[in-house]
Amino acid sequence: MDLIEAILVAVVQGATELFPVSSLGHAVVLPALLNLSLDEKAPSFLPFLVLLHVGTALALLLFFWRDWWLLLIGVLGFATLHQRQESRRVLLRIVVATIPAVIVGFLLEKFLRGLFGSPVVAAGFLVVNGLMLMVGERIRTMGHRPLSALTVTDALVIGLAQCTALIPGISRSGATIVAGLLRGVDHEGAAHFSFLIATPIILGATVLEVPKLLKADVPPGVLETASIAAVVAGVTALLTTWFLMRYFRRNDDMALNPFALYCVVGGLAAMAWLIFR
Predict the structure, then answer these.
(1) Residue 63: partners with Cβ closer than 8 Å, 6 or more residues away
(2) What is the pTM of this model?
(3) Which residues lie below 8 Å from residue 56, measured CB to CB, with a gap of 6+?
(4) By CB count within 10 A, which of 79, 93, 148, 196 is most buried?
(5) Grouped pLDDT means (10 residues each) for the chain, 277 residues
């Protein structure tokens, strides 16, 4: 993979990881559509992937640094009693929402990616993802519950929804935002919680790949290219997060519909191209 392709993939990764349009689906479909030289079995792919996710995770940590700082000082006891209680409540819900994806990902990730990872099938699930966003908007429970008002049950439902993103084409952020909407949270609050629980998931997946990375025979120049791509992915993710939080704050009525339309139209077009070209 040359530098131009690496930067293109980094921009797509940084944006689609947070937009409700499935980064994994795009990672499967786009190389087939654009004939990119992206070989997932090549020695260079693992370090490239790991560094892209590091860039995305750091962008999320940077954007939500106040949340993580308040959680840290609250859990460690360096805050008022009310702040400590609120921090522990929110942290518990983040943990509860993260556990299902950790368990299912550990047990079924390779199986699901192998079963549904062909470009045509991934494009089909992009359509399914778009329909999920549309239906979620129409059956949502109207509400404006703050993050601290989420119950353990709410967090578990959102965490279970997150597991569907192991299927290429289904968006992690889309599924969790829809689950939040169905639990009476507004778009901004649902997106906020979705991005908070994305951080440990992305970092955890990255850490699991580090031992493999240390054993990999990385070709010369790959780490330099991957490092540049990681910076690009991080900057893209930061800008995407800023845009989405601003967008959801200003739009709480059918805000997911533009992303739903993109997934349905893009998925159908990609399927047609891959099948009939």
Answers:
(1) 195, 238, 241, 242, 245
(2) 0.92
(3) 13, 14, 17, 18, 202, 233, 234, 237
(4) 93
(5) 86 93 89 77 72 90 94 88 87 94 84 80 96 95 79 95 92 96 92 93 78 68 85 96 95 93 96 90
Burial class (CB in 10 A: 0-12, 13-18, 19+), 220: exposed
Residues 131-149: tens digit of each pLDDT: 999 999 999 987 777 777 8
Helices 81-116 and 187-215: crossing angle in degrees, nearest 10, is 60
With residues binned 3-state (H G I as helix, E B as strand, rest as coil), the percentages for the chain, rounded to 5, are: 80, 0, 20
19 φψ region: left (φ > 0), alpha (ψ -120 to 50), beta (else): beta
Q: Judge whether 21 and 263 are in contact, CB under 8 Å.
A: yes
Q: How far is CA 172 from CA 7, 39, 191, 264, 276, in A?
A: 23, 24, 11, 17, 29
| Non-local CB neighbours of 134 within 8 Å, separated by 6+ positions | 256, 257, 260, 264
Convert the pLDDT of each residue in 228-269 to its tens digit: 999 999 999 999 999 999 999 999 888 999 999 999 999 999
Do 263 and 133 form a contact (C-beta atoms < 8 A)? yes
Amino acid residing at 91: L
